[in-house]
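Per reviewer request, we include the raw input and output of the structure prediction for the construct analysed in the revised manuscript.
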Amino acid sequence: MSQIRVTLFNATGSPCQAIAPILNTTHDSTLLLLTETWLLLPLKYRTNWKQYHIYGIKRQNNSYKGQQEISLFVNPQCPYHVHFLPPDSTDLSQYKLSLIMASTLLFHCLYLPPHLDKLNEY
């Protein structure tokens, strides 16, 4: 099995054009997970990396930025099949992105925002 490299980066609302320098810096990663991209449905980044998103929710005071978003980028050189697991219908689904790689490796990216008011109920 080839080496698998996974990178996690907190983008904290970086503009869409910032994806090119981020991908250039992480070009040897197999998977890149970004948190806090503030991306809203149906937006995507301009890149040849395959991308999957758990889209954020709109901020109350800003209609064009979201919060709590997680993005997965798969390097075009990745030799393995990556199967994105769609979010389930639970309240916690907005905080995780899950995938299976090479039919055997299960990954979960959890984003725990500073204010977890909804989670206090669990």
